[in-house]
Design a protein that fits this description.
Helix content: 40-55%
Strand order of the largest sheet: 3-4-5
Distance between the termini: 48 Å
Mean pLDDT: 92
Strand content: 5-15%
Number of strands: 5
């Protein structure tokens, strides 16, 4: 459903970039139906997930602005950024909090914004590295086990102390 709802509507633009700019499109685990032969498709595999993401240059997370999409957690963005990728995402739901536009990636609403962001990143390896590093830092500071373990431990401790009193 992810492929059909979120990627398929933008596929003509993505395939145009593949044809005209030499960009490659890699889809991992999606329900890809590609009659063009222009999409590299690999099955998702938990053991190889990180290495599959590391084969990419840019992480994409298109969403439609629906209640379902607004409730998504942004995990895919966090995975891309943890692997040092710059991202391009729809400004829907938590994506607006995860992506710092122009810092670790781009937020794109329209087809022209998506095209501009993808072309800019595909043509500028230094920008990809800079944004990818910024994304990695954000994941380490805001979403990593090291960032959250003390918070969770403190929360559990405070709950335990509350129940000891009662």
């Amino acid at each position: 459903s992810t492929w059909a709802e979120f990627v398929l509507p933008m596929l003509p633009m993505l395939l145009d970039l593949v044809r005209t700019d030499g960009t490659r499109l890699l889809a991992v685990g999606a329900g890809v139906h590609d009659d063009t032969g222009l999409i590299d498709h690999l099955p998702w595999d938990e053991a190889r997930e990180v290495s599959l993401i590391q084969r990419m240059d840019i992480g994409l997370m298109p969403l439609t602005d629906t209640p379902w999409a607004r409730g998504k957690c942004g995990y895919k963005l966090i995975q891309y950024m943890a692997c040092g990728l710059p991202v391009v995402a729809s400004p829907v739901g938590v994506n607006k909090d995860i992506v710092e536009h122009g810092v670790n990636g781009f937020l794109a609403s329209t087809e022209s914004e998506w095209r501009e962001a993808l072309l800019r990143l595909s043509r500028d390896p230094a920008l990809r590295r800079t944004m990818g590093s910024a994304g990695r830092r954000k994941v380490e500071q805001a979403y990593s086990l090291q960032a959250w373990a003390p918070r969770v431990a403190g929360l559990l401790s405070s709950v335990a102390k509350h129940y000891e009193k009662n």
